[in-house]
Recover the amino acids of this structure.
């Protein structure tokens, strides 16, 4: 029996802990791509290599709260 990949999708929750002020435009755009734009805002996203790469690029501005 085949598993439904949509129901088994893993998620990662990230919280913005750093300000994008005086950061490069690419870092600000990455935060917007992660659906973050204000301090202490959280976003739950699908855990994909692309999202993990975005988190890595701004790891000094975000914190991984939960990675299920």
């Amino acid at each position: 029996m085949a598993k439904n990949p949509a129901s088994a999708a893993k998620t990662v929750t990230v919280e913005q802990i750093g300000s994008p002020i005086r950061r490069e435009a690419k870092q600000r755009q990455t935060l917007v791509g992660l659906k973050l734009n204000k301090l202490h805002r959280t976003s739950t996203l699908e855990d994909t290599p692309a999202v993990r790469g975005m988190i890595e690029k701004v790891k000094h501005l975000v914190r991984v709260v939960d990675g299920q």
